[in-house]
Fold ApaG domain-containing protein.
Amino acid sequence: MVEQVTKGIRVSVDTYFEGSFTKNNEMFYAFGYRVSITNNSQDTVQLLSRSWFIYDALNVREQVVGEGVIGKKPVLKPGETHTYNSGCLLKSPFGAMNGHYTMINFSNSGQFQVMIPTFKLSATHVLN
């Protein structure tokens, strides 16, 4: 698990390898990740959007930008946690992801970015 705290918002990420498959003679590796966002600040905040960078071992970088996470824009009161699962496909058995969430603080209506720490994606079975 990796964690990072930005302005009192802790982002924790666990990853797991889900399997591989072939489509149109290309190999794909499926990875899942579980993200927990905990509000350790004294203010109520809401997640508005996300911006991810996905890197694979073949030197390919993809950016994913969108509103909310898995169709939700969670509001987090002090002490609350929002957890969700998602995933990605890579054309290599190794990679990494990082990025940020854009959030709004309801106390002052200010928007701010919460960093998502870099986490590794690894199909460890290919090492043997």
Summary: The chain has one domain: 2-127. The longest strand covers residues 9-23. The chain has a mean pLDDT of 95.
